[in-house]
């Protein structure tokens, strides 16, 4: 499961990188691109760090970072979509995948916190 999530979280960053090449060449797109490149690639990087956690508490803390970065990425994807910078269909897949990862991470955090 961890290896599959590592691949999925990395793919989000890669998909966003490809999406950014399709954004218009204007200041508003540059500002969003600068933000989303950080948050989207941070999802995979921080999930990998979580997999190397030294304790259950450390694992949860690192998953919380993944949760925050995924939520932020969804926000930027929504702005890209709602501002019509690219067609909605182009954003659909990566936005849904990010939402799925976010749901998995939130559930994992809740499960880990409920354990004695």
Q: What is the number of domains?
A: 1
Stretches where pLDDT falls below 50 for ≥5 residues? Answer: none
Percent strand: under 5%
Question: Average pLDDT across residues?
Answer: 96
Give the CA-based shape. elongated
Instruction: Report the radius of gyration as a whole number of Å.
Output: 15 Å
User: Quaternary state, please?
Assistant: single chain
Explain what this protein looks like in three dimensions.
The protein has helices spanning 2-20, 27-51, 56-82, 88-114. The relative contact order is 0.16. It is elongated and about 50 Å long. The protein has a single domain (2-114), classed as Up-down Bundle (de novo design (two linked rop proteins)). It has four helices and no strands. α1 (2-20) packs antiparallel against α2 and α1 (2-20) runs antiparallel to α4. It is mostly helical and 116 residues long.
Task: Map the helices and strands.
Blueprint: H1 2-20, H2 27-51, H3 56-82, H4 88-114
Helix pairs in contact: 1-2, 1-4, 2-3, 3-4
Question: What are the main properties of this structure?
Answer:
single chain; mainly alpha; elongated; 84% helix; de novo design (two linked rop proteins); 116 residues
């Amino acid at each position: 499961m961890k290896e599959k999530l590592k691949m999925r979280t990395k793919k989000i960053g890669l998909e966003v990188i490809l999406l950014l090449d399709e954004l218009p060449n204007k200041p508003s797109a540059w500002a969003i691109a600068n933000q989303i490149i950080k948050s989207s690639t941070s999802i995979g990087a921080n999930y990998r760090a979580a997999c190397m956690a030294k304790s259950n508490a450390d694992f949860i803390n690192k998953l919380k970072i993944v949760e925050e970065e995924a939520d932020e990425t969804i926000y930027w994807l929504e702005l890209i979509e709602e501002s019509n910078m690219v067609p909605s269909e182009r954003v659909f897949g990566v936005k849904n995948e990010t939402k799925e990862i976010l749901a998995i991470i939130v559930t994992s955090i809740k499960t880990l916190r409920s354990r004695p």
